[in-house]
Amino acid sequence: MKIITWNINSVRIRIPLLQKLVHLYNPDIIALQETKVEDRLFPVTECINLGYKYITYSGQKSYNGVAILSRISFESTFVINLYNDEKRHIAINIGELSIHNFYVPAGGDIPDANVNIKFKHKLCYVDFMNAWFLNNKSKKDKIILLGDLNIAPLESDVWSSYQLRNVVSHTDIERKKLMHNITSFNWIDAVRFFSGKHEKLYSWWSYRNVDWSKSDRGRRLDHIWISHPLESKIKSCIIIKDARGWDMPSDHVPVMLEIET
C-alpha cells in the first residue's frame, strides 16, 4: 500500500499537479492538507476520475481543510474537533488500520504565546493531539499519523538550526512538544526510520526563495508517523522533492510511505 501526504495549498487550482502525482507514483491513498475549499465545492468528480472512488473531506472557505482520497474502501471516517472547530483533522478506518490526517496551525510569526494568540493556539493544538491519542488509542493499535505538522523537530530538519532557533516551526518549545508526542505514544518517524537523524531532509521551501533548489533553505514540516505494530511492515518512506519544481507548485512537497498490508 502506498500512502501520500501532501499540503497541496489549494486543491482546486492544483488538480493538474494531483494528476501528475498520481501518474508518477500511483498511490493507493492520498491525504491532503490546506485544501482551502468548502465541502460543497470539493472537486469530487476530478478525484474520482483519477481513480479515487472513496473520498472524505472536511473543509472551509479559503483556509485550512483536509481530505483523504482512497482507492481502497474504508469502513468509517471521522473528524476530531480539537480546537476552535477549525478543519484540521480527518481520519479513516480500513480494517484494523486507522489513518489520521492532521494540519497543525502554522503559529504566526512571533514565537511568544503571551503576545501571539496564533502561537498559543499552535502549542495547545499539539498538546491536544497527544492527549487525544493517549486517551482514546492504545499503543498496540495499528495507526498512521500523517500530515503537515508545521514543526521541524530535529536540527537536520532545517537548513540552519542556529539561524532558525527563534523562528516559528523550529523553536525549542515546539520541538520539545512534538518530540514529546513521539516519545509518549512511541511513534516511529517513518522518514527518519530509513534516513537516520543526521541527513538534511526538507519538505517545504518558501515561495520567497526565487531559486529554491539552489539556496535549498528548507524545513521538514510534513511527517508520517506509524505505531509500533506497523514497524515490520514499512517498506520505504520518501520525500518527493522534485514536486517543488513542478509548474505552479505548492510550497510543500508530498511524502510517500509504502507499507505491506
Q: Topology of this protein?
A:
Layout: E1 2-7, H1 15-25, E2 29-33, H2 44-49, E3 54-58, E4 66-70, E5 76-78, E6 89-94, E7 97-103, H3 117-136, E8 142-148, H4 161-164, H5 172-185, E9 188-189, H6 190-195, E10 204-205, H7 212-215, E11 218-219, E12 222-226, E13 234-239, E14 255-259
Parallel strand pairs: 1-2, 7-8
Antiparallel strand pairs: 1-14, 2-4, 3-4, 5-6, 6-7, 8-12, 9-12, 10-11, 13-14
Describe this structure in words.
The protein is α+β, with helices and mostly antiparallel strands. It has one domain (2-259): Endonuclease/exonuclease/phosphatase (Deoxyribonuclease I, Chain A), CATH 3.60.10.10. It contains seven helices and 14 strands. The strands form three sheets. A six-stranded mixed β-sheet has the order 3-4-2-1-14-13. Helix 3 (117-136) links the parallel strand 7 and strand 8. The longest helix has 20 residues, at 117-136. The protein is globular and about 45 Å long. It starts with a strand and ends with a strand. The mean pLDDT is 97.
Specify the helix fraction band.
10-25%
CATH topology: Deoxyribonuclease I, Chain A
As for the number of domains, it is 1
The CA-CA distance between the termini, in Å, is 6 Å
CATH class: Alpha Beta
Query: Which H/E pattern describes the elements?
Result: EHEHEEEEEHEHHEHEHEEEE
* Overall pLDDT level: 97
Strand order of the largest sheet: 3-4-2-1-14-13
Tally of DSSP β-strands: 14
Radius of gyration: 17 Å
Tell me the CATH superfamily.
Endonuclease/exonuclease/phosphatase
| Major beta-sheet overview | 6 strands, mixed
